[in-house]
């Protein structure tokens, strides 16, 4: 049953973030601000010279080094942060911190070069220092790498570059960070001025690098050694969709939640180097994990050919798209295309009364529909299939416009809304919810972007 909505659009209520997100954000801000203040203190304690350009250049370099350490913390994929903020939010921070590093290092080089420049100019001064002072050449190499990574990460360049190429170039950032750190050890006057400063910088870098080693190496290898993942079954769901069941040891202790995803590596001779992000398409039950893949690209298309018994290396679970962030008793789940997989898993786990809007162009494209119907019936949920082209206009306007959503779910303002689907659909739904006045803390739309 539908009703016609007759009201003016209202701005979205601000809403307070969930306590988990507030705590994580507060922790990151406190870490960054406290370290920035202490870096400033150490800089002043080391002694400030009369050359203002050089002073500002040195300070920019110190802030750039701090931003590099903070960047490592963001890309470490530490479970505590990831489950509270989500990979997409951490990736957004990663992007902005990256550009902060870019401009800090530009300022560091330019200000010091002009501050020390003699009659021959700043470029000659840079060349002189690179040839005469230990550690300057490695800093210049690091600077060039950061500049290249910054340029290719700009939107105008990123859109014109294959992801694999961009990712490969991006990995050189780790080399730049290592070179910048060794430059700081050799040349940095603040680093060497006092035992306090030396201990602080060594401790900061040890913490940042240790976070990456733990989050990106130790935890994944330990989890895979402990759980021994293998392919238990490969089940076709449609002509271009397949579900893969993964078995292992002690899966009830993995800590995975419905709505999360893993990076899956199927350890065959032709696929072991490929890591594909797939969401869980069923709530973890301690017996198996299930992913469902549609043949959209080369990696996902090959999943259907995986043999039973194949060893699997899984990184995760990742993501904050879980009931951990539910703020209201009831929920609306909105799925589009292959985004139905985490939505289907959430429907199995989420509490309260649930409405599911499943957006597909054609009913025949509705993957896992029978499972959704069975779960909806068992949980007393409402499942609505929203079909039609992107140009379809209903009696209440566009399919996912504010009026039609309000007609389908009249109490939407009193529900948490979980959205997963193509970016265009997700943006449209978020905009509609904003116009309907749904508080922002009730809208959960993780895009599963990866920070490198």
Description of the molecule:
The chain is of the alpha/beta class. The protein contains 16 helices and 13 strands. The strands form four sheets. Strands 9-8-7-12-13 form a five-stranded parallel beta sheet, with helices on both faces. Helix 14 links the parallel strand 8 (354-360) and strand 9. The two termini are 47 Å apart. This is Ferric reductase-like transmembrane domain-containing protein. Residues 224-324 form the FAD-binding FR-type domain.
Secondary-structure blueprint:
Layout: H1 19-45, H2 52-75, H3 79-85, H4 87-116, H5 122-132, H6 136-153, H7 155-158, H8 163-170, H9 172-187, H10 189-193, H11 195-227, E1 230-238, E2 241-247, E3 261-266, E4 276-279, E5 289-294, H12 298-301, E6 312-318, E7 330-336, H13 340-349, E8 354-360, H14 369-379, E9 382-387, E10 393-394, E11 397-398, H15 402-408, E12 415-420, H16 423-435, E13 443-444
Parallel strand pairs: 7-8, 7-12, 8-9, 12-13
Antiparallel strand pairs: 1-2, 2-5, 3-4, 3-6, 10-11
Helix pairs in contact: 1-2, 1-3, 2-4, 2-11, 3-4, 4-5, 4-6, 5-6, 6-9
């Amino acid at each position: 049953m539908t009703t016609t909505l007759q009201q003016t659009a209202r701005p979205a209520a601000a809403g307070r973030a969930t306590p988990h997100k507030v705590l994580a954000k507060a922790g990151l801000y406190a870490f960054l601000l406290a370290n920035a203040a202490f870096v400033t203190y150490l800089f002043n304690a080391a002694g400030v010279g009369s050359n203002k350009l050089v002073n500002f250049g040195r300070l920019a370099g110190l802030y750039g080094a701090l931003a590099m350490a903070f960047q490592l913390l963001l890309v470490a994929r530490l479970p505590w942060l990831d489950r509270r903020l989500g990979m997409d939010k951490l990736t957004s921070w990663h992007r902005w911190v990256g550009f902060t590093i870019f401009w800090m290092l530009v300022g560091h080089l330019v200000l010091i070069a002009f501050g020390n420049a003699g009659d021959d100019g700043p470029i000659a001064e840079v060349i002189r220092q690179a040839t005469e002072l230990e550690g300057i050449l490695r800093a210049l190499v690091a600077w060039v790498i950061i500049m290249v990574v910054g340029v290719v990460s700009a939107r105008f360049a990123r859109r014109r570059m294959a992801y694999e190429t961009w990712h490969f170039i991006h990995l050189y950032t780790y080399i730049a960070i290592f070179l910048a750190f060794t430059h700081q050890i050799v040349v940095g006057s603040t680093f060497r001025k006092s035992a306090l400063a030396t201990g602080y910088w060594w401790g900061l870098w040890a913490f940042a690098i240790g976070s990456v080693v733990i989050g990106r190496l130790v935890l994944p290898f330990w989890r895979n050694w402990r759980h021994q993942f293998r392919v238990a079954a490969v089940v076709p769901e449609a002509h271009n969709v397949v579900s893969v069941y993964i078995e292992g040891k002690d899966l009830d202790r993995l800590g995975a939640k419905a709505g999360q995803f893993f990076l899956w590596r199927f350890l065959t001779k032709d696929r072991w180097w490929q890591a594909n992000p797939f969401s869980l398409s069923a709530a973890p039950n301690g017996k198996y994990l299930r992913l469902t893949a549609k043949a959209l690209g080369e990696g996902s298309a090959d999943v259907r050919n995986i043999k039973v018994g194949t060893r699997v290396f899984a990184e995760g679970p990742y993501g904050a798209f879980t009931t951990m962030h539910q703020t209201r008793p009831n929920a609306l789940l909105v799925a589009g295309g292959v985004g139905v997989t985490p939505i289907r898993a959430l429907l199995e786990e989420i509490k309260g009364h649930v409405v599911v809007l499943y957006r597909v162009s054609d009913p025949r494209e509705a993957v896992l529909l029978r499972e959704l119907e069975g779960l909806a019936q068992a949980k007393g949920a409402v499942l609505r299939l929203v079909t039609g082209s992107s140009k379809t206009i209903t009696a209440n306007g566009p399919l996912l416009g504010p009026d039609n959503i309000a007609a389908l779910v009249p109490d939407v303002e009193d529900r948490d809304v979980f959205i997963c689907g193509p970016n265009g659909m997700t943006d449209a739904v978020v905009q509609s919810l904003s116009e309907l006045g749904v508080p922002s803390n009730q809208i959960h739309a993780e895009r599963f972007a990866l920070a490198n």
